[in-house]
Amino acid sequence: MTSSPSSILDFPRRYCPTCDRIVTKDFRPGPGGRPDASCPRCRSLERHRFFAILLSVLSPLLDDVDLLLEVSPSPQTTPLLGRLGARTHLKLDLGADNRRVDVLGSLTDVPLADDSVDLLVCYHVLEHIPDDLAAMREIARVLAPDGLGILQVPFRPGTVTDEDPSAGEEERLRRFGQADHVRYYGDDFEDRLASCGLAIQRITPRSLLGEEMSTWVRAEPDEMVWLVRPATGAAVPEPLVVTSTALTRTFDAMLGEITRLQGEVLQARGRLERVRAERDRLRGAVAAPGAPAPAATPASGARRVVRRVRAMRGRSRGRAD
């Protein structure tokens, strides 16, 4: 079967690891109009796509999870966590809204026993909680000694945490980016976690995937995720501190070449579309009844002069004969 020109040029633009699909167009705008952020299939954002990859990397450590606690579940993270096969998957939030929540409660007072959670996921939650230190202490309390927490918060490197739980809605929007946020974390975020009894390991898409792969899945290369464990328990997994491994360099080289070829294909598509448009225009000009004759050009005027000269020569020969 012969492919049509359009299908040949439908070059992959993005890969979404959340729904495991290759997308031939740019992603849709995200919150606040952020360009190329939201997968058109599953609506995942940058953080969800890196979370999907991170879970895949962590899977050897998560093959025997008894209790998984997902704080503030989302339509993107819950299915990914469901694939882990945890024997118990609890979803905790203050309200159910339109989500399926198993436990109504606050992260500042988790109704679970000490050392009972094997995996805790807390994505973009702590910035909503006025007493975030109480929430961090609860994370340290409920995590098993060899349990693992995966945390992410809005974070500005090179600053200190800006917070004000008493700020009004407009002030929160201006300072923290959302009306229901009470802070924007800075470099002291890790000190806060440590003061609450947590050992920390940070990881970014760039360190795990490389620049090109991060771009292809549309993950923010330097957006941090924190892996935590109780400070008195097992060490946070060291193998996840990936710098520039041979695998990362290979991915970068491969996707760099794909990106270059993609640019060439898109340029070719643009040229083809311009040729098609010109062809259609010419067809319309020829086929249209009563269409005005094409405007004279220097070349057509020269041809008329040549024809006249030839005709005059012919008449001259006739008279001579």
TrEMBL record:
Keyword Transferase appears in the UniProt entry: yes
UniProt-recorded Gene Ontology molecular function terms: S-adenosylmethionine-dependent methyltransferase activity
Chain positions covered by the region annotation Disordered: 287-321
Pfam families: Methyltransf_11
Keywords: Methyltransferase, Transferase
InterPro entries: Methyltransf_11, SAM-dependent_MTases_sf
Any GO BP: methylation
Taxonomic lineage from the root: Bacteria, Bacillati, Actinomycetota, Actinomycetes, Propionibacteriales
Organism: Nocardioides psychrotolerans
Transmembrane portions of the chain: none
Keyword match Amino-acid biosynthesis: no
Name the record gives this protein: Methyltransferase domain-containing protein
Low complexity: compositionally biased ranges: 287-303
Domain Methyltransferase type: 103-149
Classification via SUPFAM superfamilies: S-adenosyl-L-methionine-dependent methyltransferases
Compositionally biased residues, Basic residues: 304-321
